[in-house]
Amino acid sequence: MKPQDVLKTFTEGSCEEMVVLKDIEFYSTCEHHLQPFFGTISIGYLPKGRVLGISKLARLVEVFARRLQIQEKLVAQIADSLMETLQPHGVMVVCKAKHMCISSRGIEKHSAVMVTSAIRGAFKKMEVRNEFLEMIK
Predict the structure, then answer these.
(1) Which residue numbers are catalytic?
(2) Dihedrals φ, ψ of 71, to 5°?
(3) Distances in whole angstroms, Cα of residue 65 to Cα of each of 28, 35, 114, 117
(4) Is 82 helix (H, G, I), strand (E, B) or coil?
(5) Which of 39, 88, 105, 128 is the most buried (most CB within 10 A)?
(6) Using an 8 Å Cβ cutoff, are 89 and 47 in contact?
(7) What is the pLDDT of residues 117-129, one digit of tens each?
């Protein structure tokens, strides 16, 4: 499945305020170790004339999480797809995940959580980024 298959946009009811969907659960498989990693992803965007149906953000996460993946690339792919499709003022994606490759083998650190983000457009401004981070607490 491709991102375009799930990203249907709407112009009616669009707004200029931040839209956030937080704590989207996901499960993926590390392309390096072929071990699972799982956690939550939070997505925020600043619309510019078009918005998405709320389930579309969760579906977009699934499109990329179902591939062999690394967490750093996962957040970047989600952010870039939204920037390309919606052409918003900006996008920010934050992922918090546990990796079985660090929990079950090697160093065996069971409570380690990896956090990554992808920041595009207006979210590079500290005040916009901080508003998003406050909303996903």
Answers:
(1) 30-33, 71, 99, 101
(2) -60, -40
(3) 5, 13, 16, 15
(4) helix
(5) 88
(6) yes
(7) 999 999 999 999 9
Q: Which residues pair with 38 in a beta bridge?
A: 27, 98
The most distant pair of C-alpha atoms in the chain lies apart, rounded to whole Å, by: 52
3-state SS, residue 60: helix
Q: Determine if the pTM surpasses 0.70.
A: yes
* Number of alpha carbons in the 13 Å side-chain half-sphere of residue 10: 10
DSSP 99-110: EHHHHSSTT--T
Beta strands in the chain (DSSP E): 9-10, 19-30, 36-46, 51-52, 68-69, 90-99, 114-121
Q: pLDDT digit string (tens) for 13-29? A: 668 899 999 999 999 99
